[in-house]
């Protein structure tokens, strides 16, 4: 049996008295597409951000590719990983944000090349060639020299996906990638994500797009108030929800 | 009405700037054997004297010194200020505390006093040594205070350290203006905090930082004039020196003003282009340069009558 790409055991996180995650278990196998759904404030974004240690979890075990996230076990004791080690870990995990977070002072192609060139010390010319291929892959030919402000929301999000892919990640995290988009632009981003899923990329997606969840995802987790209420095959639980909470949630979303 | 008043006031100003007044002396000529005398008139502002000294060798040396001290002070101010801003924003309490204390002290005392303290530092410390702290046994390097803090270096130190305190607040404002999502995106690419600052945060913050920094450079240029108190041979010192020997006090003050305002103008033009550089990506279209705008206006003026002729 191979180790899962992401594994969470009793993960907890709180901001002061506000308990956002109250012991979450989750497992994502390699090549799997997992969606996290749930009402806002349920902790799904926090869980996602714990996976690449943008947020530090307070308790529980979180492993990516078999390795503990943010900590290291040495002689039976847990040690916090240094900033440099955390960076090395993060460089292997791609992340796509709700508000794109493209670098506005860089062109589309510079947005994509800056990670590999500055972090991985990759060859600049080779990276540019690869970046052009990635732009073509997300359907953006001839947009190399456009600044983010000159692109539509959907185009910006596709550049953001290409930026994450340029690092050759073993895992991609999506934090509500279509929530900030105009309805007519949602499709083009989902199309790129579907293509990515078909290519075998391991993905964890926080989303409200139930159609995408049913069509592409291999597993779904429903979070509510910091706990996982229901999980399973999205074609099953999203169609025949067992818990009342998921039934309520779906009736509001669909 | 209001513009009428304004126009008269401007006319009065121009007139007084370029008016001549009787010098008190008279000059006489013989015209056809008849002695004709009349009063001698001179420029009220002594323009002829001003222009005879504007390119005087000593004045030019002063200009060079003012530019050098301004540039070096700003270099120290900008680099140390940026470090202080980053320290101040650090989650490490010791770091942010030190940065706070620094700003508190250097903003809280007059720069004139700081200038005099650096100049007189030899009274407090005869030597500066590099060695193991709290030990007198291991000393790697030692230098006499008076040879370390020459007039020029004392001025650069005083102005630079003072500027760092002010610039750190400007830089901090710029860094705070950047959306947190930018740091998160940089981190998610595996960048360290230093890399994120260098490649992502600071270049964007520059857009916010530059306009007030332009102010600081211009302000520094003029503040260096107080270094005359420690005998820094800058524009002020040289023009005052000439005034002391020629008694042309006001024309020499005007000479100094002319140089300060000329350099300020050049700096402002430079600021425009630097701002334009860092506006990349923030604006969909960069504003035209003044030269491009002039060309545009001219071509429009050139085409307007032709177009009118065609339509007729």
Question: Secondary structure elements and their pairing?
Answer:
The complex is a heterodimer of chains A (254) and B (312).
Chain A: E1 6-15, E2 18-28, E3 33-37, H1 44-51, E4 59-64, E5 67-68, E6 71-74, E7 77-80, H2 83-90, E8 93-96, H3 108-118, H4 124-137, H5 153-165, E9 171-175, H6 183-198, E10 203-206, H7 210-216, E11 219-224, E12 227-232, H8 234-237, H9 244-253
Parallel strand pairs in A: 3-10, 3-11, 8-9, 9-10
Antiparallel strand pairs in A: 1-2, 1-4, 4-5, 6-7, 11-12
Helix pairs in contact in A: 3-4, 3-5, 4-5, 5-6
Chain B: H1 2-17, E1 20-31, E2 34-43, H2 47-53, H3 57-88, H4 93-108, H5 111-119, H6 121-124, E3 127-131, E4 139-144, H7 145-148, H8 151-176, H9 180-188, H10 193-223, H11 235-246, H12 249-278, H13 290-311
Helix pairs in contact in B: 2-12, 3-4, 3-8, 3-10, 3-11, 4-8, 5-8, 8-10, 9-10, 10-12, 11-12
Describe the structure.
- With 254 residues, chain A is of the alpha/beta class.
- Helices cover 36% and strands 26% of the residues of chain A.
- Chain A is built from 9 helices and 12 strands.
- In chain A, the strands form 3 sheets. A 6-stranded mixed beta sheet of chain A has the order 8-9-10-3-11-12, sandwiched between helices.
- In chain A, strand 4 (59-64) and strand 5 (67-68) form a beta hairpin.
- In chain A, helix 3 crosses helix 4 (124-137), helix 3 (108-118) packs parallel to helix 5 and helix 4 (124-137) packs across helix 5 (153-165).
- The longest helix of chain A has 16 residues, at 183-198.
- Chain A is globular.
- The mean pLDDT of chain A is 93.
- Chain B has 312 residues and is mostly helical.
- In chain B, helix 2 packs across helix 12 (249-278).
- The two termini of chain B are 39 Å apart.
- Classes of the chains: A alpha/beta (254), B mainly alpha (312).
Radius of gyration of chain A equals 18 Å
For this entry, what is the oligomeric state of its chains?
A: heterodimer
The average pLDDT value of chain B, as a whole number, equals 90
CATH topology of the largest domain in chain B: MetI-like fold
| Largest beta sheet: strand ordering of chain B | 1-2
CATH architecture of the largest domain in chain B: Orthogonal Bundle
Q: Determine the fraction of residues in helical runs of chain B and give it as a percent range.
A: 55-70%
Cα-atom radius of gyration of chain B: 28 Å
Strand order in the sheet with the most strands of chain A: 8-9-10-3-11-12
Instruction: Tell me the structural class of chain B.
Output: mainly alpha
The count of DSSP E runs of length 2 or more, i.e. the number of strands of chain B, is 4
| Uncertain spans of chain A | none
Instruction: Give the biggest beta sheet of chain B.
Output: 2 strands, antiparallel
Element string of chain A (H = helix, E = strand): EEEHEEEEHEHHHEHEHEEHH
Listing every helix as H and every strand as E from the N terminus to the C terminus, the arrangement of chain B reads HEEHHHHHEEHHHHHHH
Form type of chain B: flat
Helix run count of chain A: 9
């Amino acid at each position: 049996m191979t180790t899962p790409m992401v594994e969470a055991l009793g993960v907890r996180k709180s901001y002061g008295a506000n308990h956002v995650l109250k012991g979450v278990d989750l497992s994502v196998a390699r090549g799997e597409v997992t969606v996290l759904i749930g009402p806002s404030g349920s902790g799904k974004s926090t869980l996602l951000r714990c996976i690449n240690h943008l947020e530090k979890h307070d308790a529980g075990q979180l492993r990516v590719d078999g390795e503990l996230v943010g900590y290291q076990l040495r002689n039976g004791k847990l040690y916090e990983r240094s900033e440099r080690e955390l960076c090395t870990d993060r460089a292997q995990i791609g992340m796509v944000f709700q508000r794109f977070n493209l670098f506005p002072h860089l062109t589309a192609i510079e947005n994509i090349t800056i990670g590999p060139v500055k972090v991985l010390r990759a060859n600049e010319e080779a990276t540019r060639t690869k970046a052009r291929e990635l732009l073509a892959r997300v359907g953006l030919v001839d947009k190399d020299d456009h600044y983010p402000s000159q692109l539509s929301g959907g185009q910006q999000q596709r550049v953001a996906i290409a930026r994450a892919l340029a690092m050759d990640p073993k895992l991609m995290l999506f934090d509500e990638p279509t929530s900030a988009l105009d309805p007519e632009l949602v499709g083009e981003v989902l199309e790129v994500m579907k293509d990515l899923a078909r290519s075998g990329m391991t993905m964890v997606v926080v989303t409200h797009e139930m159609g995408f969840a049913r069509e592409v995802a291999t597993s779904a987790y429903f979070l509510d108030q910091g706990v996982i209420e229901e999980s399973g095959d999205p074609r099953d639980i999203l169609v025949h929800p067992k818990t009342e909470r998921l039934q309520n949630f779906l009736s509001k979303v669909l | 009405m209001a513009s009428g008043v304004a126009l008269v006031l401007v006319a009065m100003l121009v007139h007084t700037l370029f008016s001549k007044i009787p010098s008190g002396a008279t000059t006489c000529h013989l015209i056809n054997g008849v002695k004709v005398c009349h009063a001698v008139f001179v420029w009220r502002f002594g323009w002829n004297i001003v222009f005879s000294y504007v390119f005087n060798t000593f004045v030019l040396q002063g200009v060079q010194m003012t530019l050098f001290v301004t540039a070096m002070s700003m270099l120290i101010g900008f680099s140390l200020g940026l470090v202080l801003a980053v320290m101040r924003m650090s989650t490490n309490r010791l770091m942010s505390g030190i940065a706070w204390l620094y700003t508190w002290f250097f903003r809280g005392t007059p720069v004139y006093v700081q200038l005099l303290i650096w100049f007189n530092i030899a009274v407090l410390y005869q030597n500066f040594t590099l060695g193991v702290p709290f030990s007198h046994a291991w000393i790697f390097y030692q230098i006499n205070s008076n040879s370390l803090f020459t007039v020029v270096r004392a001025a650069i130190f005083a102005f630079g350290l003072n500027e760092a305190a002010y610039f750190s607040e400007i830089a901090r404002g710029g860094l705070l203006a950047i959306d947190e999502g930018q740091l998160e995106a940089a981190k998610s690419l595996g960048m360290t905090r230093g890399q994120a600052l260098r490649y992502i945060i600071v270049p964007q913050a520059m857009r916010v930082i530059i306009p007030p920094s332009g102010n600081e450079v211009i302000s520094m240029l003029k503040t260096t004039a107080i270094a005359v108190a420690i005998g820094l041979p800058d524009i002020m010192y040289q023009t005052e020196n000439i005034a002391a020997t020629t008694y042309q006090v006001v024309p020499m003050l005007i000479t100094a003003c002319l140089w300060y305002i000329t350099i300020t103008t050049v700096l402002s033009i430079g600021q425009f282009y630097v701002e334009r550089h860092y506006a990349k990506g923030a604006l969909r279209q960069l504003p035209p340069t003044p030269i491009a705008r002039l060309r545009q206006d001219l071509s429009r003026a050139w085409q307007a009558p032709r177009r009118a002729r065609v339509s007729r």
